[in-house]
Design brief:
Blueprint: H1 2-28, E1 50-54, H2 66-75, E2 80-87, E3 93-95, H3 116-121, H4 172-178, E4 184-188, H5 192-208, E5 215-218, H6 222-233, E6 242-243, H7 247-259, E7 271-274, E8 277-278, E9 281-282, H8 286-294, E10 298-301, H9 307-316, E11 320-323, H10 326-337
Parallel strand pairs: 1-2, 1-11, 2-4, 4-5, 5-6, 7-10, 10-11
Antiparallel strand pairs: 2-3, 8-9
């Protein structure tokens, strides 16, 4: 019996030592740079996280409207624009979080069943939020007159000429051209063949305006993410093309991080957009940040509206904080400058 026990202990020790050696090799092996070259979405160590206006900051203005992004620009001209896009029946890429118009406009129906021409000619109002029965109002002065902020110094051009009563549909092309130097995170909301077409149209616009160096292409749909990876692998987009992973790829990275085997994560992405916690796991840690940065990946947290959470993300070195309330996050940032 003693001999058998000694043999089992020896085998156990050998297995444990082997596992330890494997992990040591993995730990020492350099992590792959999932984005080659300098990543423009990784902030400098001494900087605060970049303010990312979630849907333009839809706690302050109707989400995914040009007016919302102007409002965020008035808070921080270097902010990152986060938006969602859907393709219309006439091939125009418009900003909208949902694939339907039901919750954010005064009409109903799938966006793919509407033409952009009809949305404009019928003056469909994108001033609603999913939980609001009444639309939000445009900028107004004390006299109740609509005042556009584009006349103020430092604003980009493009807002003048919009409707004086409602929030019109905004196109992705308008967003790219109205904010010609700001970085953008664009999420493809539709899936299947329509989603593929939406991705291809977003890529076409980025190519037309030479904007690949400031746009991250995102989608929660695995097939849309895989299509973006195919386009990159086949050379249909430049090497500077930046993507964030689908849900499946994000989970894969996090699990590999927990197990210490992230050396085997090879997806060609530039940024991770994640919540602070999910499924009982905390992602907002210095360890997670360190792992991501070893892979040359930016980490941007969503959707952060609590000031204490904002401060925590500043402390762990987050690259970006996505919020519905740009003014609120700016207040937190100002306390660090004092």
């Amino acid at each position: 019996m003693k001999a058998r026990t000694k043999k089992r202990l020896l085998i156990t020790a050998i297995v444990l030592l082997s596992v330890a050696l494997v992990y040591l090799v993995i730990f020492l092996f350099p992590r792959p740079k999932n984005y080659e070259g300098e990543n423009p979405f990784i902030k400098a160590d001494s900087d605060l996280p970049v303010l990312i206006a979630h849907r333009g900051g839809d706690g302050e203005f109707p989400g995914n409207t040009l007016e919302a992004y102007y409002n965020a620009y008035s808070v921080d001209k270097n902010f990152i624009l986060e938006t969602d896009v859907n393709l219309t029946s006439d091939g125009v890429l418009i900003l909208c979080h949902d694939t339907t118009l039901d919750g954010t406009t005064n009409v109903d129906g799938e966006i793919i069943d509407w033409s952009y021409a009809d949305l404009i000619s019928r003056r469909v109002n994108f001033g609603y939020d999913n939980d609001d029965d009444e639309p939000k109002e445009l900028y107004k002065n004390e006299a109740g007159e609509v005042v556009y902020p584009s006349s103020l110094a430092g604003y980009p051009t493009g807002l003048d000429g919009r409707d004086s009563e409602i929030f019109l549909a905004t196109t992705f092309e308008e967003l790219v051209t109205s904010f010609p130097t700001n970085k953008i995170i664009v999420e493809i909301k539709q899936d299947g063949e329509v989603g593929f077409d939406a991705l291809h149209e977003a890529v076409r616009i980025a190519e037309e305006y030479d904007a690949f160096d400031r746009i991250i292409f995102a989608s929660f749909h695995d097939e849309i993410f895989e299509e973006s990876m195919r386009m990159l692998g086949d050379g249909e987009v430049p090497e500077s093309f930046m993507a964030s992973p689908s849900l499946g790829s994000t989970i894969k990275f996090f699990v590999m991080h927990l197990l210490g085997v992230d050396v085997f994560y090879f997806d060609n992405i530039a940024a991770l957009q994640v919540p602070t916690e999910e499924y009982g796991f905390t992602l907002a840690t210095k360890g997670f940040m360190k792992t991501a940065h070893k892979h040359n990946l930016a980490v941007q947290f969503w959707t952060i509206n609590d000031k204490e959470q904002m401060r925590h993300l500043i402390e762990i070195g987050a690259d970006g904080i996505m919020t519905d309330y740009p003014h609120r996050l700016a207040e937190v940032y100002s306390s660090y400058a004092e």
